[in-house]
Queue: 2 jobs
Job 1
Amino acid sequence: MMVNTIGPSEDACPGACNRRYRDAWAAYTTAHTAWRSTCAALSGTAAQLLADVPEDEDLAPDAYDALFAIVLPEEPGRLPDPPDEPEVPFTAGEAVTASGANVWCPRCRRRIRAALVEIGDLAATLEAWADGHRGAASGEHIPTRRTTAPSPSPITDMLDALYGMLADVERQWREHAGHPPRPGRSRGGDARQRTLAYLLEQADRILDNPGSPRFGRGILAWQARLLRATKSDPVVRRRPGRCPRCTWVNVLQTRDDGHIECRNCGRLMNEDEYQDDVVSVAGFDVVDETIAARAAS
C-alpha cells in the first residue's frame, strides 16, 4: 500500500481495491473547487473595496480596515484555509515495462480473468431461460400493445448487448495487436463463447495496456449485471404500484424473463407497459396502500 500526497496517482490500480482512494480524491476535488470559488468571491470584494477607498483622509481608514479584514490571516473574515489533501493509501498496479505505466494490481487482474469465465457461464444460463427452460419464455403468450416486432425477451436484448460489447473489444484489440480481423460470426451462444475465449487468451496483454481500465471495469460491470439477472428465484423482485386490471396493490413482481406479473389476476406486462400503465398513473394513495399491504403481509 502507498500514500500519495501530491494528487491522484497514475500508479493506482483502477480496480475496486482503490474505490475508497478514488472517492476521497473526488470529495477533495469538490471541496477544493468550492474553496477556490469562495476565495475568488472574497478577492473580488477586496478589489472592489480597494477601488472604492475614498480620497477623504477621514474616511479612508474605515475602508482599509474592511479590506484588511478580508486579506490578512490574523483578522476576522480572512481567506479560508484550503481543504486538506486526502492521505488515503492506495494499491499500486503492476509496472508494465513496455509502456512505463502501472495498471492493474494482481488481485484485480485475477478478478477480471475470473469474470470473463463467469460471464460465459451466466450468459449460457440466461440463454437457456430465454429458450424456454424457465418462465414465460417456455411458450406462454405474453400480451403486448407494441406495434413493432419485439425481441423474444428482455434476456435476449441483454445478451445481444453483451455480445456487441465483447465483439467491439475483440475487433479493437485485434487491430491494436496486429492480429487477423475477427471472423464473421452470426450472433449467438457459440459466437459469444468464441469471442470470450479469444479475450481470455489475450487478457494479460490487454490488461497490460494503459488503456485497459475501461475494458476491465466494463467486464466487472457485466459480471455484476448478469449475476443480478440469474438469481435462483424465478421471481426476481417485487414491483410497486397498482395492477391496472384487478387494481390490487402489492401484487406485482418481476419474473426471471423480465416481464412483470400480477400475482392476483395473472396480468402480464413488459417494462414499457409497466411504466405506462402503472408508474405514470400512480399517486400517493398507491404508495400508502402498498406500504400498508406489505406491513400486513
Job 2
Amino acid sequence: MKPTAEVSATAASVQNTAPAPTAEPAPLVVDLGKVELSALKAELAKKLQVSDKALVIVVVEAVEWGDASLGCPEPGMMYAQVITPGHRVVLAVDGQQYTYHTALAGNFVLCEQAGSSSSAAAIELLKLDLAARSGAAVAEIVVLSSEAVQWSDSALGCAQPGKVYSKVITPGLRVTLELAGKRYDYRTGALGEFVLCESN
C-alpha cells in the first residue's frame, strides 16, 4: 500500500503546481458622452475595409474644442463659436494613426487635415526651417507627430512677451520634429505662418 500513497502524493503535488488560468484583459471603458469607442472603430473599419479587431486604441483624452468644428474645420464652413467639450481619440492599424475628434453631444469627425497635401507641404517647410537653423541636412530630421489644432488666437499657442495677438480662432498644425535626439515643437496657422515654440 505504501507505493500507492507515494503516487497519490505526487499526483496531488502536480495538481497544486499547475498554472492558474490567465484572466482576459478587461475592455477599455471610457465615457465619451453619447459617442462610443465601438462606433468610432466600426466607422474607421468600414472606411479602411478592415476588421475592427485590427484597430488599436492609442490615445483617448478629454478636450475642450474652441468651437463647434471640434478642432477640425472644413474650408468654407461656418461654425458656432462656443466651447465644445469632447475627446480626441487616436486609433491605429498597421502603423498608421487616425484621429477622431468627438463632442459629448454625440457628433464626431475623422480629422484628416494632418495628412492632406497642403499639410505635407507645410511640414516640409518646417523641416527646411529647422535644417537652416541647425545646419543639419533635411534627411536627418524626423517627423514625430503632426496634428490638426485650432489655436485660440493668432499666437498659435506660443505667445511672445510684449506682442499683441488677434483673438481669433486660427486653424493650423502642431508638428513635432526630432533632430539628434532633441525635439522641436512647431506651430502653424492657416495662412502659412509658423513659429518654433521654444520652452524657456
